[in-house]
Design brief:
This protein is α/β, with parallel strands linked by helices and 141 residues long. It has 5 helices and 7 strands. It has one domain: Rossmann fold (3-Layer(aba) Sandwich). InterPro entries: Flavoprotein-like_sf (IPR029039), RNR_Ib_NrdI_bac (IPR020852), RNR_NrdI (IPR004465).
Amino acid sequence: MTPSERLTTSRLVYFSSISENTKRFVDKLGHDAARIPLYPSESPLVTTAPFVLLLPTYGGEDGKHSIPPQVMKFLNDARNRENIRGVIGAGNTNFGTAYCLAARKIAAKLGIPELYRFELMGTPDDVRRVDEGLEEFWKHQ
């Protein structure tokens, strides 16, 4: 650990872009959550306990750059890869086959379950389903 790292034991880790759609969804959940830094000048986040990752998909280029670079950097830290247990995707159905592609790619690459997908900021039903799903998921871990 370096002095500039920010450690977390949160069971929910998320990334939200400047639009903060994902942050608004996470705020509705009311779970303790840690945000992956948006800017390189911020202290890197390091997990010290199992967590579920919630992230949006970036569009464009047929999904080639669907995973936000900040999430790639976060997952390049072996400590974070060791602790990830599942992933939840946010997306935009306008992306077509790239809808929630970032979550699907991460689930496949790391061999973890993709737990849920929702569009943009999610609906009240999405919030309820994710909340209940996370409670159930952690009971079985």
